[in-house]
């Protein structure tokens, strides 16, 4: 029997004629809906939307196959592709075979290394101290909007470490106009599903989209221009590295347009993901008091009496339990919940499911992170032990992918 003789068709929820599964999922709670479909249909299922096949995988075995970079590559489609309006061929939205992707990858890797974090740490602590000042001065009956303050924290941190710009979010009630524009852009590009009549229906929104894109691009271009014209005696930030860095392989530099795309990219890829991680972490700490107690104990042990001194990079590295808490929060709610792949050639995965060349194959991370074959019978339980001792070393790495895969994995994970 040949490998193609025992093929089975990929499970698919019932859809409507013509539009297929276009309305099978409610876009306003897309990820929860897809998780429910995975729960119902298993580790692989597909949707047909306007003649396109969308495959979703969430079993660790199948994800391991799809993460084989000789067989599958990242593909930029749908909402991600629409982000090219402001992120162009930057790292996140560029194609792997685009020369600008490998050029920026090589130039930027050192600026995101563990070692490089030392130069950002004082700037990170500047912003973190603004949050602390604010929270220290609340009354016991004040309400804190935690997610909003976490967005202020991560956004301002990327602004100052990325390109020396202060959004000063802790000094305003609403967000900086740049962020209002960015958020509108993200929500518009994520809502559009290419359905017929959409252009007509959302004409006003699309006009706004282009106005926002022009505003953002212009603001960032001004920042780059200004930096080029000054000696830059401030602390080194990512923009400095991008302006001076050369690709070791070709000797080339990044163009100003590409640097603008990278800056927009850091803001898009970095602020909501990291703030979401921090919000979920605080939520789980409050829901699991024994974990919180152990976290306090670890911090006290490492920082001791120097609690008024900001922690050093070295001290942060001595807190395995804090790290485990963060990674466990990212297991249950990975804040970039999916990534898109496509096979180079016709593929068969799981021994029986055909995935024709180029098929859009999405790894559904929250479901992967609940695969009972790996995480046991109660995957919903918040358990930092999943990342202590040799738990990670003895587990299939494909079972945990909050930062994506291989060479296209997140460049900002140390930063986060
Ligand atoms: Mn990040 C790619 C998750 C923080 C910049 N990031 C990815 C991918 C995931 C991801 C998943 C892969 C996407 C894909 O395959 O299409 N990122 C996260 C999470 C956090 C995060 C969960 C925080 C927690 N990311 C950050 C921060 C920055 C950043 C902070 C920058 C300051 N991420 C990137 C960039 C890429 C990326 C740039 C694209 C890397 C590449 O393909 O070269």
Describe this protein's structure.
There is one protein chain. This protein is of the alpha+beta class. The protein has helices spanning 30-41, 60-66, 78-82, 84-87, 99-108, 117-136, 146-163, 177-191, 198-201, 203-228, 238-244, 256-287, 289-303, 313-316, 320-332, 365-368, 372-375, and strands at residues 44-49, 52-57, 72-74, 338-343, 347-349, 353-355, 360-364. β5 and β6 (353-355) form a beta hairpin. The structure holds manganese protoporphyrin IX (MNH). Manganese protoporphyrin IX is lined by residues 74, 91-92, 105, 158, 265-266, 269-270, 273-274, 277, 334-336, 339, 402-404, 408-412, 415-416.
User: Helical proportion?
Assistant: 40-55%
Rg over CA atoms, rounded to whole Å, is 22 Å
Low-confidence runs: none
Strand content: 5-15%
Gross geometry = globular
Mean pLDDT: 91
Major sheet strand order:
1-2-7-4-3
What structural class do you assign from the helix and strand content?
Answer: alpha+beta
Number of strands: 7
Bound molecules: manganese protoporphyrin IX
Largest sheet: 5 strands, mixed
Alpha carbon gap, first and last residue: 49 Å
The helix/strand series, from N terminus to C terminus, equals HEEHEHHHHHHHHHHHHHEEEEHH
Number of helices: 17
């Amino acid at each position: 029997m040949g490998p193609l003789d025992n093929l089975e068709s990929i499970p698919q929820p019932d859809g409507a004629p013509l539009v297929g599964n276009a309305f099978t999922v409610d876009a306003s709670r897309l990820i929860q809906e897809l998780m429910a479909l995975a729960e119902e249909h298993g580790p692989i299922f597909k949707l047909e939307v306007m003649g396109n096949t969308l495959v979703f995988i969430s079993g660790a075995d199948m994800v391991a196959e799809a993460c084989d970079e000789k067989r599958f590559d990242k593909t930029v489609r749908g909402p991600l592709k629409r982000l090219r309006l402001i992120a162009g061929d930057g790292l996140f939205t560029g194609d792997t075979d685009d020369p600008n992707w490998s050029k920026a990858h090589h130039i930027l890797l050192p600026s995101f290394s563990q070692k490089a974090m030392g130069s950002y740490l004082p700037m990170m602590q500047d912003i973190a101290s603004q949050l602390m000042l604010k929270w220290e001065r609340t009354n016991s009956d004040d309400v804190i909007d935690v997610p909003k303050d976490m967005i202020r924290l991560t956004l301002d941190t990327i602004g100052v470490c990325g390109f020396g710009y202060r959004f000063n979010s802790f000094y305003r009630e609403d967000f900086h106009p740049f962020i209002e524009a960015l958020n509108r852009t993200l929500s518009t590009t994520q809502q559009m599903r290419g359905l017929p009549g959409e252009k007509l229906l959302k004409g006003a929104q699309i006009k706004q989209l282009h106005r926002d894109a022009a505003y953002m691009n212009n603001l960032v271009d001004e920042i780059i221009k200004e930096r080029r014209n000054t000696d830059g005696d401030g602390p080194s930030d990512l923009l400095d590295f991008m302006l001076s860095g050369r690709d070791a392989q070709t000797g080339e530099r990044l163009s100003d347009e590409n640097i603008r795309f990278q800056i927009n990219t850091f803001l898009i890829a970095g602020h909501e993901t990291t703030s979401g991680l921090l919000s979920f972490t605080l939520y789980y700490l409050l829901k699991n008091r024994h974990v919180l107690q152990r976290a306090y104990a670890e911090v006290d042990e490492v920082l001791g009496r120097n609690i008024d001194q900001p922690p050093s990079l070295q001290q942060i590295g001595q807190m395995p339990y804090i790290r485990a808490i963060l990674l466990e929060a990212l297991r249950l709610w990975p804040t970039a919940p999916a990534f898109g792949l496509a096979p180079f050639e016709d593929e068969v995965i799981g021994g029986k499911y055909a995935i024709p060349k180029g098929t859009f194959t999405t790894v559904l991370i929250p479901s992967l992170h609940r695969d009972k074959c790996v995480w046991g019978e109660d995957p919903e339980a918040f358990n930092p032990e999943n990342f202590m001792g040799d738990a990670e070393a003895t587990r299939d790495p494909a079972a945990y992918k909050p930062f994506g895969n291989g060479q296209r994995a997140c460049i900002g994970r140390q930063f986060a």
